[in-house]
Amino acid sequence: MIDCSLYPITHQTLPLRPLSLYIHIPWCIKKCPYCDFNSHAIKADTPEAGYIDALLVDFASSIERFQINRPISSIFFGGGTPSLFAPESINRLLVGIAAQHPLVEGLEITLEANPGTFESQKFAELKALGINRLSIGIQSFNDTLLQKLGRVHDAREAISAVDIAHQAGFG
Q1: What pLDDT is recorded for position 17?
Q2: Closest to 40 (Cα-Cα) out of 2, 81, 92
Q3: How far is 59 from 54, CA to CA, in rounded Å?
Q4: Using an 8 Å Cβ cutoff, are 28 and 80 in contact?
Q5: Which of 41, 49, 110, 128 satisfies CB 3.0 to 4.6 Å to 133 for a cystine?
Q6: Would you tell me how many other CB atoms lie within 10 Å of the CB of residue 128?
Q7: Range of lowest pLDDT (5-14, 16-25, 26-35, 128-137)
Q8: Nearest CA-CA partner of 82 in 168, 160, 151, 24
Q9: Exposure letters 115-124 (e unless 16+ CB within 10 A, then b)
Q10: Cβ(39)–Cβ(80) below 8 Å
Q11: 157: part of which helix (H) or strand (E)?
Q12: What is the pTM of this model?
């Protein structure tokens, strides 16, 4: 039998790999019938400021409670449709996270967006904030299929979303 007491394995002895952070923004223009994610159709204005406040409090609490000291290498804004939030709100969240926890240089920051929520100015601002990857919710370029899926955009808007993303500097 091997004496494992000579080689105790604890969280302090394991290599500290960077963290990936998922941030959920649960609001959408419309809840798609096939979507199983925790998301909700917007009924009025989204409570952006209050939600960002709550996320920052939760983040600080989690870092302290779990004594997390690993740097963050990626942040993924999922949903819902995170692109519905104003760039100022996304920036406030990113600044708040960076103030509380180390970030890996050149970290990947992804934001989910749906066609129909693309505005040139907004995506240029998001790019300037450090968002360097988009996940565009294009399920199809077939208008009939998009209607059956309950999507709020058509093929033309999907193509336009890709064009706007490229113009804003995304891949």
Answers
A1: 82
A2: 81
A3: 9
A4: yes
A5: 110
A6: 12
A7: 5-14
A8: 24
A9: bbbbeeebbb
A10: yes
A11: helix 155-167
A12: 0.85
Question: Which residue type occupies 160?
Answer: S
Q: How many residues does the chain have?
A: 171
| Interacting residues of 135 by C-beta distance below 8 A, sequence separation 6+ | 78, 110, 111, 112, 113
Cis peptide before 80 (omega within 30 of 0): yes
The torsion angles phi and psi of 90, rounded to 5 degrees, stand at: -65, -40
CA torsion, ordered 104, 108, 109, 115, to nearest 10 deg: 180
The end-to-end CA distance of the chain, in Å, is 55
What's the fold here for domain 20-167? TIM Barrel (3.20.20)
User: What are phi and psi for residue 118, nearest 5 degrees?
Assistant: -90, 125
Q: Which two tokens stand for residue 90?
A: 């996304």
Q: Residue 166 carries which side chain, given as an amino acid letter?
A: H
3-state class of 45 per DSSP?
coil
**Structural contact between residues 135 and 114, judged by C-beta atoms closer than 8 angstroms:** no
Give 125's contacts (C-beta < 8 A, 6+ positions apart).
Answer: 87
Strand partners of residue 41? 28
